[in-house]
Design a protein that fits this description.
single chain; alpha/beta; Rossmann fold; six-stranded parallel beta sheet; 17 helices; 18 strands; globular; binds GDP-alpha-D-glucose
Length: 469
């Protein structure tokens, strides 16, 4: 239903994507339907909307077609459109060619291009204008993530009456790294337009705090408090949670149990099933876990007749050069492992470069004895939490990078440094041999941690602090 835009929304989310996306049914654009967008941001943020009567969401539909605002389930969806060229500068370029690698330190070099920056500013302005148009007097606006770091500052200029919160889903790098960015002060000032800035970890919050004080952009007013332009700006860690009940309940159903049993049978009923689930992204360390597996097989430390690995790599950002290269590298490594160690009908690595649906994902979490989460750097990593939520019977072993934000809460996982291949190999070998009593003792506190901070707690915690002056 199309609707006119009135400044009547008491609560406005501003995120790169809308919470729904248009799916072409017949591939020629004649018919289609809206479905929930994938990813952790939407599932964590969407429920908070229910606490507010009149809410709106500003975001991109993923297409270059101009769409009118419309209401879905009481929520005003306000599409932001961008041309193919603008998407290249703003999204592929500045967001994913500059900021994403810079913030995930040294996975690939960050590129700095002035025309990307111009595109980033232009599109941030578009989101800020849209938010200014729909927000009611005194409304709360919650801006999300690295694509939109200029929006709080731009919005504050347009609408000083608003309460503005910003949450960064990815890491914030140490000041020593960040200062190489030619537009460091503009980005930091953009974020300082907020009343409250949330990060995934205390380290990220601390990095930002030190940066702005060191650059003379704000004064230190005590732990987590900055003084900027006559206002108080608070910074704090709010580790994001998942919809625990959804994973826990689905995992307990007969349907998922049957599915998991069937999956293990189809894998050749191995002794141990290892699993990786990631967007195909160079920060996630998919290559490093394949390298560790290959060496363990080459050395004879793992028996390919007993151990099988499933790697789901959801297609992602496939217009960006580094992602194309990674895809080729992963294809090659999987081929090499299976060529050297597989048998006809029994590959060692089952590689799925596709999106799997929720029931299939759950069945995989249930079928996996070992979950490998080995990013070089990750804001949080929801997959680690989802696995823990699905292991209601306290079986299974999580191997987790110490550089994922999740490692702070899930410190009972087998923690690894993904740059240390020998250490990773030792952790995998240890996970394969782990006794059920140890697995249980590790999972119990991890489940307690995941249950204690779910997605709704996370959003409410942030929004309560934002409301508190
Ligand atoms: C960013 C930050 C932070 C993946 N493949 C499939 C699938 N997924 C789902 C997972 C999970 C989500 O996508 C991925 O979330 P992550 O947290 O692991 O990673 P990013 O996408 O990089 O997210 C991250 C997050 O924002 C939230 O703040 O934790 O650090 O980088 O929910 O289950 N889901 C389905 N099929 C797949 O093939 N159904």
């Amino acid at each position: 239903m199309a609707t006119t835009t009135e400044p009547d929304r008491k609560f406005v989310i501003v995120a790169n994507r809308l919470p729904v996306r248009w799916v072409d049914d017949d591939r020629n654009g004649d018919s289609g339907h809206w479905e929930t967008s994938p990813g952790g941001l939407v599932s964590a943020v969407r429920p908070s909307v229910a606490d507010y009567g009149q809410a709106g969401w500003i975001g991109w539909t993923g297409s270059d077609v101009d769409e009118e605002p419309f209401v879905d389930d009481g929520l005003l969806l306000h599409p932001v459109s961008m041309t193919v060229d603008e998407k290249e500068l703003f999204y592929d370029g500045m967001s994913n060619g500059t900021l994403w690698p810079l913030y995930h330190d040294k996975a690939v070099p960050a590129e700095f291009h002035r025309h990307w920056w111009d595109g980033y500013r232009r599109i941030n302005r578009r989101y800020a204008d849209a938010a200014a148009k729909v927000a009611a007097e005194g409304a709360t606006v919650w801006v999300h993530d690295y694509q939109l770091q200029l929006v709080p500052g731009m919005l504050r200029e347009l609408r000083p009456d608003l309460r503005i919160g910003f949450f960064l889903h990815i890491p914030f790098p140490p000041p020593e790294l960040f200062v190489g960015l030619p537009w460091r002060d503009e980005i930091a000032l953009g974020m300082l337009g907020s009343d409250l800035i949330g990060f995934q970890t205390p380290d990220a919050a601390d990095n930002f705090h030190r940066l702005v004080v060191r650059r003379g952009l704000a004064d230190d007013s005590g732990p987590g408090v900055l003084a900027h332009a006559g206002r108080r700006v608070r910074t704090r860690a709010y580790p994001i949670g998942i919809d625990v009940a959804r994973y826990d309940q689905a995992a307990r159903t007969d349907k998922v149990s049957d599915h998991a049993r069937d999956l293990r049978a189809r894998l050749g009923a191995p002794h141990t099933v290892m699993l990786g689930v990631d967007r195909l992204d160079y920060t996630k360390g998919i290559d490093v876990r394949l390298r560790a597996l290959k060496e363990l097989l080459d050395d004879g430390d793992i028996n390919p007749r007993q151990v099988t690995m499933v790697q789901v790599a959801q297609p992602s950002r496939d217009d960006v050069e580094a992602y194309i290269t990674l895809r080729e590298e992963v294809d090659r490594m999987v081929g090499e492992i299976n060529g050297d160690h597989g048998r006809v009908g029994f590959p060692v690595v089952h590689y799925i470069h596709q999106n799997v649906d929720f029931p299939e994902l759950l069945a995989m979490y249930r079928a996996a004895d070992i979950m490998l989460v080995t990013p070089f750097r990750d804001g949080m990593n929801l997959v680690a939490k989802e696995y823990v939520a699905a292991r209601y019977d306290l079986t299974g072993c999580l191997v987790l990078s110490e550089f994922a934000g999740a490692a702070t809460e899930l410190s009972d996982a087998l923690l690894v440094n993904p740059y240390d291949i020998d250490g990773l190999k030792a952790a995998i070998a240890r996970a394969v041999a782990m006794e059920p009593t140890e697995a249980r003792a590790r999972l119990e506190p991890m489940r307690a941690a995941v249950l204690a901070n779910d997605a709704v707690d996370w959003a409410r915690g942030f929004l309560a602090d934002l409301a508190d002056r």
